[in-house]
Automatic annotation (TrEMBL):
Natural source organism: Streptomyces fimbriatus
UniProt keyword terms in alphabetical order: Zinc
Name of the protein in its database record: PIG-L deacetylase family protein
Pfam family, one: PIG-L
Length: 250
């Protein structure tokens, strides 16, 4: 029998200067796309992070008041490994982030502050690959980010942002979704993969609570396997995949 054809992933656009990554929790980007971010910052592009929560409900053995500051520190250290210095937290409650106007407004405000051409987020669909149920926080933040990319350019949706000095930004050209089961594009992870491993390892408290496996073995195995699997659709090179949505204005 003939093997089914596997669609090849296209290279991500590279004619941009600024990106903003918006996710729900500390470690979301490190599990998904930090090798790509490392390659972008190496090329002189600006990348900033916005996190909806501080991940305070993410470690069962730590009270949120202790866990939140710890995970914030880990996230800032993790971002620095891949060349990102701007890390913001929106202070929505971990585990109960709600999709709606308040979340869209906060993300639209961040987009207006940073004025990116590319916005990055995480899988906004109900499942991971049709198998594992996604978390409500990921779904809410991913969906709100897709919507906020348009909200940021419309002065009449959240007029209070303009009153606060945040002028509309209609310059978002794409939203790239990491962790999608239907990716369309990819970034070569060859040069960024080692830093992606070190970046994930900065979330040591979270990893040690998650698994009994040696943290470096765990991080390296997880990221390398994902990059190699994606590379089968990207010329055999280790890669990070995205589902790319060009933004269409009304």
């Amino acid at each position: 029998m003939t093997e089914p054809t596997i669609s090849q992933l296209q290279p991500m656009p590279d004619d941009w200067r600024r990106a903003l990554a918006v996710v729900a929790h500390p470690d979301d980007l490190e599990y998904g796309c930090s090798a790509a971010i490392a390659s972008w910052t190496d090329a002189g592009r600006e990348v900033a992070y916005v996190l909806a929560t501080r991940g305070e409900a993410g470690i069962d053995t730590l009270e949120p008041a202790t866990c939140g500051p710890l995970r914030e520190r880990e996230q800032r250290a993790s971002a620095a490994v891949v060349g990102v210095s701007a890390v913001e937290f929106l202070d929505h409650r971990d585990g109960v982030v709600e999709y709606g106007p308040a979340l869209r407004r906060d993300i639209a405000a961040a987009i207006r502050r940073h004025r990116p051409e590319l916005v990055i987020t995480l899988n906004h669909r109900d499942t991971w690959g049709g198998t594992y149920w996604n978390t409500p926080d990921h779904v809410a933040v991913g969906r709100a980010t897709l919507d906020a990319a348009g909200d940021a350019g419309n002065r009449w949706i959240f007029p209070e942002l303009t009153e606060q000095g945040l002028e509309p930004w209609d310059g978002v050209r794409w939203v790239a979704v990491a962790g999608s089961s239907t990716p369309t594009h990819a970034v070569d992870a060859t040069d960024g993969l080692e830093r992606a491993v070190r970046s994930l390892l900065e979330h040591r408290a979270y990893i040690e609570a998650l698994t009994d496996e040696d943290p470096e073995t765990y991080a390296r195995g997880f990221l390398t396997q994902n990059a190699e699997d994606t590379g089968k659709r990207f010329g055999g090179r280790p890669a990070v995949a995205f589902e790319l949505f060009p933004r269409v204005t009304a």
